[in-house]
Amino acid sequence: MPDLSQIVKAYDVRGVVPDQWDEPLAELFGAAFVQVTGADAIVTGHDMRPSSPGLSRAFARGAAARGVDVTEIGLCSTDELYFASGQLGLPGAMFTASHNPAQYNGIKMCRAGASPVGADTGLAEIRALVEEWAESGAPEPAAGPGTISGRDVLAEYGAHLRSLVDLSTMRHLKVVVDAGNGMGGHTVPTVFEGLPVDLVPMYFELDGTFPNHEANPLDPKNITDLQAKVRETGADIGIAFDGDADRCFVVDENGDPVSPSAITALVAARELAKHGGGTVIHNCITSWSVPEVVKENGGTPVRTRVGHSFIKAEMARTGAIFGGEHSAHYYFRDFWNADTGMLAALHVLAALGGQQGPLSQLVAEYDRYAASGEINSTVEDQAGRAAAVRAAYEGRQDVELDELDGLTVTAADWWFNLRPSNTEPLLRLNVEARDTATVAKVRDEVLSIVRA
């Protein structure tokens, strides 16, 4: 019996292949997915990992055996699968483990219109069915099996993204893109088609073994090649995508990283101008600059927990036009409330190309504070250490505490957030302040308690 508690996470399925899950299990997931969604047709796609085509086809077989028609779009990025789900009006399943190492794979599932399937929105029921069938045998096939057919939506996806951003006034730019041997190597040439861009591609060869570096640009060591190439070629901007190309990271003309909070603020200002105002969602560890910029541009900021299911739920509830996270996930109402790093990248290119200054100068107005970045501490007793930090600050008159997500402590000149990891014995600390000395002081203060 497979231990599904190890692979069914809050938002997706993720585990080592074939140790934790394999094609027969993928087939059961396909059958369970169509039963829970009530679909009579679905769309599937997969990334470049060696195990992805087999797992994706097994899922399709499981769905078709239940009488459901399956459209396979084949190799794609996660946001391309969301596009297909939205455009075709079908539930979808994307086979990817995003930035995880090569031996991992997973499934990101959504209902029609790219609406997420998570623990509270169907994933728990899917897991229960798969567990039941793994023990008692696969469900009875439908009287008439569904069909499995292929469709290429890459050109439609690229055209749709370009239609959402005014790229008409862009000057010519030299752009380095590091695809990390992930799906950006497949999608970028089509999405950038016709743009006034001198593209310098890095690691565009699709290779799910990730021979050059991990496809996780959130880790600074994985963007050093991009930074060097930007400096070497005199490029205007560098962009890195993660393995399934749904997150985008930016470096400026000097090779310096631009914080995802600054990108969130920049894109928010552009979306507010486009829509004539509106609500913008940001999670509780994005910079102070995000709500400031939103208000300055006539918008309403709404703060929420970390994680795409919370962001998407708030976007649906409030009718928000845009949402951003510190992890470089960017969500757009014009894209079915789904996240697409590629659309965020087009916004940054349009903003940079629509004026004459360098990127460092453009983003300076959106990057107003000093920050620690995310600092992880391995602790055996997450709750106990977090409680100790809370106890150290709760009696103070100069701070406010809230527990929207973990513990956030806010003072006049600084704030920090301390959150437990859902999957590892870690506490994650983020600190922001008006200057670097204060960041260092608060960081060291908190870490001395966490690591005591």
UniProtKB/TrEMBL annotation:
The keyword Transmembrane does not apply. InterPro entries: A-D-PHexomutase_a/b/a-I (IPR005844), A-D-PHexomutase_a/b/a-I/II/III (IPR016055), A-D-PHexomutase_a/b/a-II (IPR005845), A-D-PHexomutase_a/b/a-III (IPR005846), A-D-PHexomutase_C (IPR005843), A-D-PHexomutase_C_sf (IPR036900), Alpha-D-phosphohexomutase_SF (IPR005841). This is Phosphomannomutase/phosphoglucomutase. The keyword Disulfide bond does not apply. Keywords: Isomerase, Magnesium, Metal-binding, Phosphoprotein. PANTHER family: PHOSPHOMANNOMUTASE. Its cofactor is Mg(2+). Belongs to the phosphohexose mutase family. Residues 374-447 form the Alpha-D-phosphohexomutase C-terminal domain. Pfam families: PGM_PMM_I (PF02878), PGM_PMM_II (PF02879), PGM_PMM_III (PF02880), PGM_PMM_IV (PF00408). It comes from Streptomyces pathocidini.
